[in-house]
Amino acid sequence: MTESLARICSRRPLVVIGVWVILLFVSGALSANLLSTATTTELKQSGGADSQLAAELLEEKLRPKRIIESVVVQSENYTVDDPEFRQQVEVLFGGIAGLGPEIVLGGQHYYMAEDARLVSADRRTTLIPLFMAGDFDEAGKNVSEVIHIVEEANASGDFRVLIVGESSISHEANEFAEEDLRQGEAIGIPVALIILLVLFGTVAAALVPIGLAVVAIVIALGLAALIGQVFELVFFIQMMITMIGLAVGIDYSLFIISRFREEMNRGLSKREAVQRTGATAGRTVLFSGVTVVIALFGMLIVPSSFFQSLGLGAILAVIVAMLATLTLLPAVLSLLGTKINLLPIPFVGRVNTEGSDTNDHGFWEVTTRAVTRFPIVSVLAIGVPLLVVTFFYFQIQTGLNGVDTFPEGSQTREAFFVLEKEFSFGLVNPVEVVISGDINSPPVQEALDKLRTGLHESQDFPLPPAELEVNPAEDLALLQVAIPGEPRSQATVDVITGLREEIIPAAFSGVSADVYVGGVAANAADFFEIVDRYTPIVFGFVLGFSFLFLMLVFRSIVIAIKAVVMNLLSVGAAYGLLVLVFQKGVADALPFFQHAEVIDAWIPLFLFSILFGLSMDYHVFLLSRVRERYDQTGDNTQAVAYGLRSTAGLITGAALIMVVVFSGFASGKTIINQQVGFGLAVAIFLDATLVRSVLVPASMEVLGKGNWYLPGFLRWLPDVRVEPAED
Fold it and tell me: Would the pLDDT of 22 be above 90?
């Protein structure tokens, strides 16, 4: 199929390029006009999550979801009893109220009713709670006008004015994400271009992969904008498409262009070279892309909009990059021909394309001889340190890094710490206990009294709950209660667990009413529960598929088992390094990273799906060469040496580009992007260098002909080849 695609595209290159140009412009228009409405910063769980049921009941029977913002006014020189303080608050509140009900529905301040709950113990800090208009996304956009007023008021020397709440946190997180995205692109693209210039030795050959990656990213974003009109997508999908699109777009192009130049050097015409490249490297890209996509499907299994958005973004980026590599790139190469070598870089050698470095010289020849001569030593020298690093994974503390881990100087972070010190941040994001049933019935009223008593007796709830809200039909009630601390922290989640499993059952045991716990903290607790429940399912899906795929392709149960073990080793080492760097304090000595108490709970599962798919690229690429030579000679040692010698340079170059792209995003301000970028970069680096170039060939040398063992009852499996035999 890939050979036919390459032949067709090389015969009608202008038509193919024209189609892709049209897709590029249409996708750019879709992205510009629809992407903002296709994504949200609100995280939702599905599959009957308690917090989601609570939110749906409140919206259906009581009131729309309230987006609460809190403006903090603080002074070192005045107290709330001073006229200067009162004037500051009233002028500020008047400016915010003047924005109109389409932005702020309402609010209150201390001087309206002298509510003591809105003033700190030292009377130097007060809260101005606000109710934002619209849903979560509308409030996230409108809050920028409130933030502008707050920032102007904060310029006063006598008062410190800050804002924090769901929409302002979302707004600031979105700004940081966009900054990190621009910084990742600004670092990743130029450095990747430099690496390509070194690998290819010519400007023309280096620019083509960058162009293809950009095309893949723009079209994938356009598709996401369309899909987002039907299914709600989390805004992280944009970063995922950009990061994965850059990495695989450049990576796949590298394989194709390297093979094309090799075929041209053999004397083939440009069309023949394109066709031969499609039949060989094109098949590798197709196998690789399909493998990555199926591994990424593991994230779509998880009933969370966050995981599904990440998975979908990565899948779109890989599919578009793969299709562009198999159609657009052959068309471009058929036009360029030898012009792919235009503008050579002085003193820079061209890449040793796959299969061309077969002479007994060079770095990889020395490495090959060392690995195959001392295979057991090589296995121990690499395997033992990786196992030691993997051990730290078992000390991982997962959670969700919230507003308290925002970069220093961010407004919502500073407001959070003021609230925690003077009041409770739980006032901004209260827990919502939703009771569904006959609210006025004596059993329900008695249960409510028991619930209040249980909350009062618990040390986890230092503040009394708010007044009970009952809907007109009197079949639904809401009791709001504040929990100190960041609502997404593990400590707060533990409080939610105790509320659900101990306090509420003790109060409502035997009562005909359903009780649900909602709010930001409850949403986080449900997210943790979903991750814990679906992690073994996703692991089983990805591992099982990888095993079956490799056994089918290489007709060996040993190769399949060993590949799964090797992939687990590289992923485990990446997990261990994450813990060492971010949890154990190594980050304190590094210039870009922040120390973190927890690794975000979604990152291990996300990294596993992404890395297992990407690492298959290199594994299949290496083993297909080994299998090809083994079938020709029957000599396992020679086959392993040939496979390593002929692919290691290209694998290392391709992996280095991925490492650079992921490192660009790891240099961002937010700790989430730092953890994701670092985890991906480290895992790819370890996988392509130590694991793929040393550990895999060394272990194959140890096993000898046992590598190719297939039980008799599986001999019926079809003989599938990644690449056809060489002419």
Answer: yes
